[in-house]
Amino acid sequence: MFVLLAFVGLSPAAMGAAYSLPAEGDQVVGAVITVRLTYEDTLADVAQRHALGYQELLDANPGIDPWLPGEGTVVRLPTEYVLPSAPREGLVINVAEYRLYYYPPKLNMVVTYPVGLGRMDFPTPLVSTKITGKLENPSWTPTPAAREEHAEMGDELPHVVPPGPDNPLGKLAMQLALPGYFIHGTNKPFGVGQMVSHGCIRLYDPHIETLVELVPRGTPVHIVNEPFKVGWRGEELYAEVHEDMYTETDPEVLVRMIADATKNRAAVIDWARLNRLTQAPTGIPVRI
């Protein structure tokens, strides 16, 4: 039970959000909570403080100025999730929600962390792969495209960037079987929860420290793109909608997902609410 004891001893910052897996047939975990801001707070501050990504906090709070939200502003923390449809094993990264899910072996739980992802011109690949190694104080070997991009901005990169404050891999990294791709820390925490990398997956430093400690080599990694997620919680059906960053998903996909979810379980769907959700995604599960 080493893994369980390790999780029990973690600080909230390192732990991220951990939940018992729902009963068979259910897919929703967590709950949305609210916080009241002080005058000094920005949404970037709140995201890091509560182990969330910047974009997901922005999506959950439309209309709030991210840099000057104001004293007393109430902010929703999107800490409720429909689990992705990928296998509940190892690491599952859903690029549409900038979020990683870890299913510790032999434990009936899931731990989830926000992640930074590849930009539009360097998208994070959608693959099933595995963890092949772990690196402490990794060096970064920029691709030719990265070196050319930096050179155009007047920043000549060496062929190998040594460990240190200028290294975007941070202090720790897990190597994937996919050559050139890593799950790693960051020297720029603001980029967690945004499209900022050349395809790699970035986490806050406390989160990568936890994963490097607990995730064994050989762990499967499923990188998926699920902007629509549908799942039951008891007798209620929920839909969770995100912007599809890399492609454009037909809303009819969501209709088919609801049809599949209700084949053997009766439900009266609020189609007007669902339509509003697809028009203005918040990334928060909504009872439909």
What is the arithmetic mean of pLDDT? Answer: 87
Tally of helical runs: 8
The shape is globular
Q: Give the N-terminus to C-terminus distance in angstroms.
A: 39 Å
Report helical residue fraction: 10-25%
Number of strand elements: 18
CATH superfamily of the domain at 90-224: L,D-transpeptidase catalytic domain-like
User: SSE string, helix = H, strand = E?
Assistant: HHEEEHHEEEEEEEHEEEEHEEEHHE
Radius of gyration: 19 Å
Q: Give, in spatial order, the strands making up the sheet with the most strands.
A: 1-8-7-6-15-10-11-12-14
Structural class: alpha+beta
| Low-confidence blocks of residues | 1-6
Portion of residues in beta strands equals 25-35%
Topology:
Elements: H1 2-8, H2 12-15, E1 17-20, E2 28-30, E3 33-36, H3 43-49, H4 54-60, E4 74-77, E5 80-82, E6 90-94, E7 99-103, E8 109-114, E9 117-118, E10 128-136, H5 144-152, E11 172-176, E12 182-184, E13 195-197, E14 201-202, H6 205-214, E15 220-224, E16 228-233, E17 236-241, H7 252-261, H8 271-279, E18 286-287
Parallel strand pairs: 6-15, 9-13, 12-14
Antiparallel strand pairs: 1-8, 2-5, 3-4, 6-7, 7-8, 10-11, 10-15, 11-12, 16-17, 17-18
Short description:
This protein has eight helices and 18 strands. It is an alpha+beta fold and 288 residues long.
Overview of the structural elements:
With 288 residues, the chain is α+β, with helices and mostly antiparallel strands. The chain has eight helices and 18 strands. It has a nine-stranded mixed β-sheet, with helices on one face. Strands 16-17-18 form a three-stranded antiparallel β-sheet, with helices on one face. Strand 11 and strand 12 form a beta hairpin.
